[in-house]
Amino acid sequence: MGIDSHNIDNTKGKTRPVHTTLLGAEILIVEHLCNLYLLPAEGFTFSAIPPKFKGVGTFPVRAMAKLAKPD
Are 3 and 34 in contact (CB under 8 A)? Predict the structure, then answer.
C-alpha cells in the first residue's frame, strides 16, 4: 500500500488500526510517497529498496516505479 501522506493512520491517538489491519494481512505500507497521480492505474512494477537495518519499525526506502513498455 503506497500513500502520499506522512502516515496512513490518524496520529492523534495511540492506536494504529490501518497499520494493524494491513500488516496483519502481510500488506506492506510505504508512506511519504509523492507524484502517485502520475502513475497509471496498472502497467508498472513498484520497488521499495530499504537500507540494511535491524530492530526498527520504520526506515527510509528508495521507492521506484518502472513503467511497462507499451505493446
Answer: no
Average pLDDT over residues 55-65: 83
69 contacts: CB under 8 Å, gap ≥ 6: none
DSSP 55: S
pTM: 0.72
Note the pLDDT tens digit of each residue in 31-53: 999 998 999 999 999 999 888 87
Do 49 and 62 meet the contact criterion of CB atoms below 8 Å apart? yes
In angstroms, the CA 2 to CA 54 distance is 22
Give the 3-state secondary structure of 1-51. Answer: CECCCCCCCCCCCCCCHHHHHHHHCCCCCECCCCCHHHCCCCCEEEEEECC
The set of cell numbers assigned to 61 is: 526506502
